[in-house]
Amino acid sequence: MKQNTLRWWIITLLLGLLAGRSSSAQTDSLARSTTGVSLSAVTVRAIAPERFLAGQKFQRIDSATLIQFRFGSLTDLLSLNTPIAFKNYGPGQLATVSFRGTSANHTAVLWNGININQPNLGLTDFSTLPVAGFDQLSVQYGSSASVVGSGAVGGSILLGSSPVWQPGIHVTVGQQLASFHNNQTQLGIRYSARLGASWKLSGKTFAYRNQFNNAYPSAERRNYFLERSTTAQRGFVQDLYFMHNSGRQLSVNVWLTDNDLILAPQDTIARERTRTQSARFLTTYETNHLTLRLGWTHDILDYAKSNFALPSHTQTDRFIGRTEREFVLTPAKARWALNLRVGGEWSHYRTQTDGYISPLIEEDRGDLYALLRLQTTRWLVSATVRQAFVTRFNPPLTPSLGAEYRIVQRPAFGLTAKGAISRSYRVPTLNERYWADLGNPNLLPENGFNLEAGLASTLVFSEHLNLTAEATVYRNRVDNWTYWNPTTNYHVENLQQVLARGGELTTSLAYVRNGWRAGLRLGYALTRSSQERAYDTYAEDVIGKQLVFVPIHTETLNAYIQRGQTRLSVQTQASSRRYTTFDNSQFFKGVALTNVLLETTTKVGPVPIRVQGQVNNVFDALMFSVKRNALPGRNWALNVLINFPSNKS
User: Is the Cβ–Cβ distance between 496 and 97 less than 8 Å?
Assistant: First the structure.
């Protein structure tokens, strides 16, 4: 009774704030370094979640790394630059994530602020997300449901588009040729111009075509089977931004994808085809204090075996509306900043599939949330709360509290302590609830409780050399974890309690002098994730055992040396054994993969040309897919990127 009273009191307060009077413009910004803080006035665009997630680990991927992986998928980039583990089904095939010891549908993937996880499956295939399709990438570690919403249990991946206001037209053409007759083609156009006296336009038009033929010279590798497959990926991105002199901005973002995967294409009996198509549309209107969004996502999944003429067909539409307002609660000329952001979101789901208990399923979801942020010269504190509403469900109230304190803030050395406590939830997927015979409409939402703490430091040895480091420990317990129970013919039930705990350490060393640049980045993660509650006699054998395909130890190493426009990079990812059975009796051995990249930029007349050659899996390590097939060994790729000079208007 007390919990329901608190919930409705918070809802009433949020609705009152959303209907309240206008606020002044945003007056604070967070510089997440350990050496200083800025309280200067800025305009906040499209709420960045990290502003209200104090105390939690947050990693921004820099533009140099995005360019380096321009012809790669998000799987490639994250595997080599973060401790995130992936379940890989093969080249060009399904790649799902395990973030801090959780499952694939415990990671929220946001594109310009909206969750793009496939609604029926509740997850994202990272092999279908090309790095070149977006401009910004950030990784948020730990539970963030109070800010992000359902599914942000292990962490969140934030993909963003951004305008470039420099006038002119910039054209980029890219081509990759790779081993096994694989190839990729990209074409991008950026443009910006004034529209009369009051408005200006910035836009990006981008198209890509990836063809993975995977024509291996042999059907075996070290006596293990190499599975043949072909994957065709097509995509189109359109971003338009209209900015008024007053600061108002209207944006339109479109992302169309088509991914066609065929396994065993030459075997007309055993072949399988999975085709996924997505259309994502988003319109956003922003002022200094108000954000309005309307969106629509359209997902199609077709699956067929042997006879491709009669595929199983799933089609899901999601309509989204969101409003947010920010209030500045700081007195004039104050040495601290206090901001309150309140918002509400409504989504309508409509799905049609031949595998559900009904051919058409519809449901509504709503969210109300409040985000509070306090910043002083040494303290950064955030307190957030979200209440979700789902048809025939009762998700829990999800609050969070986090803080960061600058223990030392000197020019040559900075040290910051962090800590956060948060709750999370996940609404069961449409498949889990509505699949005929096996689904369970009476499932409860999963409920997580996350604790984490850490230290971050910066050490400046000289004007040429500096070091950054961050250490984090966490404990995340998830109750009512859904499970396709094999003892009941894979009927879905809320059976498990999973405890994920561990730590992460990252450190970076950078050197710059006399035209030379060099860098070294090391990462290590310890992840212990296990089931803690038995639901039958069989389950007692797996209590305390590591979850399948989640390595206990993960390491990454990235090193480079650069002179002028020429750069040599070495990238290594290593992981300990991955168990393939729940009782940990079978496993894949630990493995280390090393890639080497050599890139340079030259000019042909006025046209800059970026050339990159890479050798993947240099030491020909043996690694297996989830299906126990061998993955390809040493392979190469040649990438060429031509940037035509800007034609200024």
Answer: no
Q: How many CB atoms lie under 10 A from the CB of residue 230?
A: 20
Least Cα distance to 136 among 59, 38, 84 occurs for: 59
**pLDDT of 136-163, one tens digit each?**
999 999 998 999 999 999 999 999 999 9
Predicted pLDDT of residue 286 = 94
pTM over 0.90: yes
Nearest to 163 by CA among 130, 193, 196: 193
Q: Are 83 and 138 a contacting pair, CB within 8 Å?
A: no
- Collapsing DSSP states into helix, strand and coil, what is residue 150? coil
Residue 258, pLDDT > 80, answer yes
| Structure tokens belonging to residue 52 | 């209200």
* Residue 89, amino acid: Y
The stretch 76-86 carries a mean pLDDT of 94
- In angstroms, the CA 171 to CA 49 distance is 32
User: Which amino acid, one-letter code, is at 502?
Assistant: G
Q: What is the mean pLDDT of residues 102-125?
A: 94
Stretch 470-488: mean pLDDT:
92
Q: What is the C-alpha to C-alpha distance for residues 116 and 640, in angstroms, rounded to an integer?
A: 30
Q: What is the pLDDT of residues 539-586, one digit of tens each?
A: 788 899 999 999 999 999 999 999 999 999 999 999 999 999 988 999
CB 428 within 8 A of CB 120: no
**What distance lies between CA 247 and its chain's CA centroid?**
29
DSSP secondary structure of 299-329? EEEEEEES-TTS-EEEEEEEEEEEEEEEEE-
| Cα distance between the two ends of the chain | 65
The two three-digit tokens of residue 115, written as one number: 């969750």
3-class SS string, 80-127: HHCCCEEEECCCCCCEEEECCCCCHHHEEEEECCEECCECCCCECCHH
Give me the phi and psi of 587, to 5 degrees please.
Answer: -160, 160
Contacts of 626 by beta carbon, 8 Å cutoff, 6+ apart: 87, 88, 89, 549
- Residue 222 has a CB neighbour count (10 Å cut-off) of 9
206's CB contacts (< 8 A; 6+ apart) are 132, 133, 186, 187, 188, 189, 236, 237, 238
- How many CB atoms are located within 10 Å of the residue 257 CB? 21
Exposure string (b/e) for 586-618, b if CB count within 10 Å is 16 or more?
ebbeebebbbebebbeeeeeeebebebebebbe
Q: Is 277 left (phi over 0), alpha (psi -120 to 50) or beta?
A: beta
